[in-house]
Please model this.
Amino acid sequence: MTRGAAEPRQRLKAHWLDVAAGRQRRGDPGLYSYNLVSVARGDLARLRALHVRYFHELRQIVSDSREPDCVALVAMQLFELGA
Model:
């Protein structure tokens, strides 16, 4: 769901973030990681570029996957606090 009006996409993103948060609160198995960092704006731009590259590589792996036998949620966020 990558095209169309922004509001339904935002609701869908919020839903999956809620799913991830609920599972983390329950202690369900998974990788629940975070980094709260202080960086220069130029480095934040570099982190954003890295984030986008990771997302595209992840999507390529999914696209190349043959005979999938499980479903996984990958939740990623990167935003400036106080912005």
Notes: The helical segments are 6-26, 41-64. The mean pLDDT is 93. The chain has two helices and no strands. The longest helix spans residues 41-64.
